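Sequence only, no structure available. Ideas?
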Amino acid sequence: MHPLDRMNMSEQELINIEVHNAFEAIKAGGIILYPTDTVWGIGCDATNPEAVKKIYDLKMRSEAKSMIVLMNSDRMMYNVFKEVPETAWQILDLSEKPTTLVLDNPKNVAPNLIAADNTLGVRLVKEPFCYKLMERMKKPLVSTSANISGQPTPTSYKEIDHHILDGVDYIVNLHREKTAAKPSAIIKLGNDMTVKVIRP
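Reply:
I predicted one. Tokens follow.
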């Protein structure tokens, strides 16, 4: 699409185009680079283990270090977790910033996303692009920072390494000028009611 054509479009129209393009890449088993409610992320269909492996390989990251998934609804949460502690909903309701919850006993996701202790990190998002993409996918979306493992997390698109840019199947053309302060908070919640703050 010509840049001038994009300039004449509303943000909603641009989001719809990018959702379509990202969905086509993901449907084909690809991985995408996209803006989230925090930092830029690398993502794929969270139920596709081959696509998940592509992300681990691109980031040069051990599969022992699990990745989080984004969801856009309570229904999606209950499709992945048989039990969601009441504390989880209270934290999500009260949180003033994006918060990732690590919960027990996930199901219906790629096995190579699940941590050794049988937990999975999840974040409910309302950010329009991510929300609409998952609405189209009807599945959770993997989200991991757009860096090679061990390197600093980029806070803006222009800081992303060329190895990452060249290694994904589609780069979403939205919010490339945005700077994010930091990744989400991470809180681990056990079904036994234990609460542990991993990243404030």
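The CA atoms of residues 79 and 108 lie 7 Å apart.
Hope that gets you unstuck.
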